[in-house]
Amino acid sequence: MKLSNGKGKMVAPLLINGEIHDVIVRSADTLLPILREQLGLTGAKQACQNGDCGACTVLINNQPSHACLSLAIETVNQSITTIEGLSNSPMQEAFVNNWAIQCGYCTPGFIVNSHALVTNHPNADDNIIEEWLQSNICRCTGYEEIKMAVKSVLKTSSE
Amino acid sequence: MIAFDFEYYEATTLKEAKELYEKAQAMDKKVMYYNGGTEFITFARKGKAYAEVVINIKNIPDCNLLEVRDGTLLIGASVTLNAIVNAGFYPLLEDVVKRIADHTSRNKITIGGNLNSQLMYKEAILPLLLADAKLEIFGEEGIRYVPVQEVFNKKRTLKQGELLVTIQVATENLQLPSTFIKRTKMSKVGYPVVSAAAIIKEEQFRIAFSGVCASPFRSAAIEKILNASDLQIDQRIEKALREIPGKIVEDVNGSSAYRQFLLTQVMEDMYRGLEVGK
């Protein structure tokens, strides 16, 4: 099935945070600039654009994914959740309460990934937490507070 | 940003994928199959990959198989590395793919993409070489089945226009004693300076390497030496090092001398881990 030709742009319906948004994409556009520049969803941050840093992490079908490593066109018919869709979530509150923020640039990616972590692994041990959090880089190196935030949500949900 | 445009298709059958590919070729267009897309996107952004037509194969059911059927584990080329880990069929393959990239990336990277990578590492191949896996490949003449060694050992790859459909591993080879060691330059996430996987099958040591030469390899000559019970372990390793089938890589991650040093350590650790020679 042909979804786009090589030259023109197409209107693609993307399901983001529970709502359909029509966006205009080139087939070569990745999801990240579409979220930020067409929809104003600037929580996913542009950084390495290489899948190395995790600053652009969003959920695609409830699994963490780099918005810089998905073509926008391939996310048609997928469910996308950005940090804006996790407003007032337990993980967001845990990051605030544990001071798991320094400059804040990596924070949305960390919160999205951590939210998926506790959703997929409500009994996550240290190994699982380490494995998941290796996907995100904090140049301020505030990793301990981030781990504390994750553990606080795990603890609360198990009580 | 990817600085070129391409036609984008999503194929839902092998036949459709092949027809799209051939049609693009007939029009002299540069065409590429697309799976996880992580390498294509990153390479295209840097100008290291180019296509005028991209055919996404992730919606082809055969490429998404992950099941045991008639004594054979079938892994579709579009299955992600995390899906392989979560399925729990093949412990050594899980150990290996869990160290490829990071967890979030492994939700996108597929095993087919890893095997077809332009990078030299392709670590998912290691357990497949050891288990004598077969590949189901779809191309001009339809489906063909080929031992993995014939396609991905050393620098050989798929022929132009061919599509990897499934990887097939006999279930008798899934639970053998095994070990995997990966040494990186700095952090746990990273390309290997040296990585090696080994199994014991019928009391024989099998070993395959990545990061050492320009492509992953399994060598009959090396295994013969490493199984020579008339030699001490250190003698075997010393002799085996002379049989490395190519120039040992020298790059920013490590000198060839350092890689050789690590290889010795890794092989010693593997013997110890698998209790070979006791």
Description of the structure:
The complex is a heterodimer of chains A (159) and B (278). By secondary structure, chain A is α+β, with helices and mostly antiparallel strands. Chain A is 34% helix and 18% strand. Chain A has 5 helices and 6 strands, in the order E-E-E-H-E-E-E-H-H-H-H. In chain A, strand 4 and strand 5 (63-66) form a beta hairpin. In chain A, helix 2 packs across helix 3 (107-120), helix 2 crosses helix 5 and helix 3 runs antiparallel to helix 4. Chain A starts with a strand and ends with a helix. Chain B has 278 residues and is of the alpha+beta class. Chain B contains 11 helices and 12 strands. Chain B has helices at residues 14-26, 38-45, 81-87, 91-97, 103-106, 111-115, 125-130, 148-152, 220-226, 233-241, 256-274; strands at residues 7-10, 31-34, 53-56, 66-69, 72-76, 134-139, 142-147, 163-170, 178-184, 192-201, 204-210, 217-218. Chain B has a 5-stranded antiparallel beta sheet with strand order 4-5-8-6-7. In chain B, strands 9-10-11-12 form a 4-stranded antiparallel beta sheet, with helices on both faces. Chain B has a 3-stranded parallel beta sheet with strand order 1-3-2, with helices on one face. In chain B, helix 3 (81-87) runs antiparallel to helix 4 (91-97), helix 9 (220-226) runs antiparallel to helix 10 (233-241) and helix 10 (233-241) runs antiparallel to helix 11 (256-274). The chains are: A alpha+beta (159), B alpha+beta (278). Chains A and B meet through strand 1 and strand 5 of A and strand 1, helix 2, strand 3 and helix 5 of B. Strand 1 (2-4) of chain A pairs antiparallel with strand 1 (7-10) of chain B, so a sheet runs across the interface.
SSE inventory with pairings:
The complex is a heterodimer of chains A (159) and B (278).
Chain A: E1 2-4, E2 10-16, E3 19-25, H1 31-38, E4 57-60, E5 63-66, E6 79-81, H2 90-97, H3 107-120, H4 126-133, H5 143-158
Parallel strand pairs in A: 2-6
Antiparallel strand pairs in A: 2-3, 4-5, 4-6
Chain B: E1 7-10, H1 14-26, E2 31-34, H2 38-45, E3 53-56, E4 66-69, E5 72-76, H3 81-87, H4 91-97, H5 103-106, H6 111-115, H7 125-130, E6 134-139, E7 142-147, H8 148-152, E8 163-170, E9 178-184, E10 192-201, E11 204-210, E12 217-218, H9 220-226, H10 233-241, H11 256-274
Parallel strand pairs in B: 1-3, 2-3
Antiparallel strand pairs in B: 4-5, 5-8, 6-7, 6-8, 9-10, 10-11, 11-12
